[in-house]
Amino acid sequence: ATDYRTITVERTGDRTALLTLNRPKALNALNLQVMDEVVSATEALDRDPDIGCIVLTGSTKAFAAGADIKEMQPQGYMDMYLTDWFTAWDRLGNLRTPTVAAVSGYALGGGCELAMLCDILLASDTAVFGQPEIKLGVIPGIGGSQRLTRAVGKAKAMDLCLTGRTMDAVEAERAGLVSRVVAVDDLLPEALAVAETVAGMSKPVAMMAKEAVNRAFETTLAEGVRFERRLFHAVFATADQKEGMSAFADKRAPDFTHR
Ligand code: CAA
């Protein structure tokens, strides 16, 4: 994991990992190399049974200022189509391990989309969100028009995608895009603490909780509830359900084995 050029990856706690975007000179603009590295690093962490939660972050100034405009500028339709440009990002949304985005500064275009690909989105009070692609003569390409609309509704999604204006952290939290806003100095500690909390849960059960919530975006209410019910029944096949409920009855902390 040391041969990455555009990211750093480190183990942070018992069962957590931190991935930091590291292209400071380009405000973490997401070129194809960043995409490949983020996807391969997170997929490797996803396969590691000792990792229960992954935090993604950028710098204080920029989570990521978007896809790399200079890399895209000369591309033509056939280049984009034949390489299926950006499609590898979808794999981030398909990770089974819970992910936390810790966003400070710019989260624009692909940066906002990257944050929305994560499960829990924490923002510093300096965070700035937007889908300003329209100002470049393009539209979002990593799911922004879909995930932003599901997160904040049509009113703000249309506003942001059509005018290119940005939202500050307060507006983003009010709109339901982010789950918590914290002081910029507290962002990483808070994100790592959230990750520790999640990673302290039963991993298979956390995976099922994630899968159930994500299902809400893919199906009808009745089917989603049925899907949840089946997973709810399935958790009773885990040792961790026995342990979690026994620990409650015994008034002690559970000792999950992640099985
Ligand atoms: N792509 C490539 N390079 C970028 C970049 C991007 N998205 N964002 C910033 N950079 C580069 C700048 O070109 C600059 O490089 P040089 O020093 O070589 O000139 C460097 O990062 C620092 O940026 P600025 O000097 O512009 O920094 P600033 O503090 O003055 O402004 C900013 C910050 C307002 C975020 C500004 O950089 C900006 O507007 N960036 C572009 C934001 C944007 O349009 N994002 C959407 C991209 S399209 C997209 O993401 C498509 C999609 O849906 C996937």
UniProtKB/TrEMBL annotation:
EC number(s): the record gives 4.2.1.17
Query: What CDD domains does the database record attribute to this sequence?
Result: crotonase-like (cd06558)
Task: Give a yes or no for keyword Membrane in this entry.
Answer: no
What UniProt keywords apply to this chain's record, in alphabetical order? Fatty acid metabolism, Lipid metabolism, Lyase
Q: Which SUPFAM superfamilies match?
A: ClpP/crotonase
Q: What class of enzyme is it?
A: lyase
Q: Name one Pfam family in it.
A: ECH_1
Q: Which PANTHER family match?
A: ENOYL-COA HYDRATASE, MITOCHONDRIAL, ENOYL-COA HYDRATASE-RELATED
Task: Report the protein's function.
Answer: Could possibly oxidize fatty acids using specific components.
**Protein name, per record:** Probable enoyl-CoA hydratase echA8
Which classification does the entry list for the species?
A: Bacteria, Bacillati, Actinomycetota, Actinomycetes, Kitasatosporales
